[in-house]
Amino acid sequence: MHGRSESALKKHNWDLIDRLRDKSPLPWLLGGDFNEILTFSEKQGGNRKPHHQLTDFRECLLRNDLADCKPSRGWFTWMQSGPRTAPIRERLDRFIADSDWHLTFPTFRAWSEYSSNSDHHFILLDTVAPLHGPEARGQDPTFRFDECWAREPECISMVQSLWAHSTGPFPDRLATICEGLRHWQSTKRTTDWERIPRLRSEINRLSSRRLNAQGLETLLAAKGELSHLLKIKEAYWAQRSQVLWLSAGDQNTSFFHAKASARKKKNAILGLYDCDGRWHTSTAEVLRVASDYFGSLFSANSPVVPPLFLNISPPLFPQT
Predict the structure, then answer these.
(1) How far is residue 7's CA from residue 30's CA, in Å, rounded to a whole number?
(2) Which pLDDT score is estimated for 225?
(3) pLDDT tens for residues 2-27?
(4) What is the pLDDT of residues 225-272, one digit of tens each?
(5) Where are the domains of the chain?
(6) Distant-in-sequence, close-in-space partners of 49: CB < 8 Å, separation ≥ 6
(7) What is the mean pLDDT of residues 195-215?
(8) Which end of the chain is flanked by fewer CB atoms within 10 Å, N or C?
(9) Residues near 94 by Cβ (< 8 Å), separated by ≥ 6?
């Protein structure tokens, strides 16, 4: 995208995004020169921009379920300078994407590079930046219970059944429950998430025709089930995003989703430098560098001689 730079015409940029956003239900990514900033921290030097211009851009992203793809390197992408004026730098170029895209590519990496032929830096995006650790190996060594299922009768019944059929000490019985819930959670989540669009379609179909008493009952049941599944999905993403100041119930699923994706991307370890300054990216090497670092950190390289330490330390009681 190349947005118009004239203040009076910037509304056309946001209208264009509104029109394009409705063209496809697929995950959505848009990049380019938007000729606008989102926050005042994205500009250095020059006059302060009118607040309403930033607000119009932010509201456009909000109503279209779009979020800024923060760069891992490079912030200001445009600079204007003259022989007698202080330079002005702004972040005008960026990628924006919806929550579905962030879920599909949770480990993306965006950055900018200097260009000698333009006053703009060019922006790049890698959708398959490598992960390391358990997720890169396709396994999750820990079990995390999703709180959204805590009040589900099916979940309560499963826990009771697993506990009744388990034996041994408490840790072993708890491990049995965790293994049983691990598979159940994954299957349940997939089934419920796939049912949400089908319920929406059914509600839309029933709402466009005259209904008898049975049809009205079916419509109300579908609305109730959809509302219940949306609250579960919202609580699911709220737990993963660790956003505690916004309680579940406001149907901010896309907000929580974007937060969770951003947190996962922020915590991903792409590589580590060893003590000699060499960069390592393979899983085995990353684990070795981390192990060596903490091993040396918590080991005593030059232990203090006890007599010398005792001579320096003042006595606890005065000598008589």
Answers:
(1) 21
(2) 92
(3) 888 888 899 999 999 998 887 877 88
(4) 998 998 888 888 777 776 555 554 455 666 666 666 766 777 777 788
(5) 7-126, 147-255, 272-312
(6) 37, 40, 43
(7) 87
(8) C
(9) 31, 34, 68, 69, 71, 77, 110, 123
- Within 10 A of 101 (CB to CB), how many other CB atoms are there? 23
Tell me the one-letter amino acid at 53: Q
Phi, psi of 52 (to 5 degrees): -65, -25
- Type of residue numbered 320: T
Q: Rounded to whole angstroms, how far apart are CA atoms 91 and 221? A: 49
pLDDT at 49 over 70: yes
b/e per residue, 161-188, with b = 16+ CB within 10 A? ebeeeeeeeeeebeebbeebbeebbeeb
The 10s digit of each residue's pLDDT in 66-98 is: 889 988 888 889 988 766 677 889 999 999 998
How far apart are alpha carbons 140 and 128 in whole angstroms?
19
Q: What is the largest CA-CA distance in the chain?
A: 103
User: Phi-psi region for residue 246, left (φ > 0), alpha (ψ -120 to 50) or beta?
Assistant: beta
121 in Cβ contact with 93 (< 8 Å): yes
State how far the Cα of 280 lies from the Cα of 316, in Å rounded to an integer. 50
Mean pLDDT of the chain: 81
Fold for domain 7-126?
Deoxyribonuclease I; Chain A (3.60.10)
Backbone angles phi, psi at 286, to 5 degrees: -60, -45
Per-residue DSSP letter, 130 = P
Residue 112 identity: S
Question: Which parts of the chain fold into alpha helices (H)?
Answer: 10-21, 51-63, 99-104, 153-164, 170-207, 213-241, 253-267, 283-297, 306-312
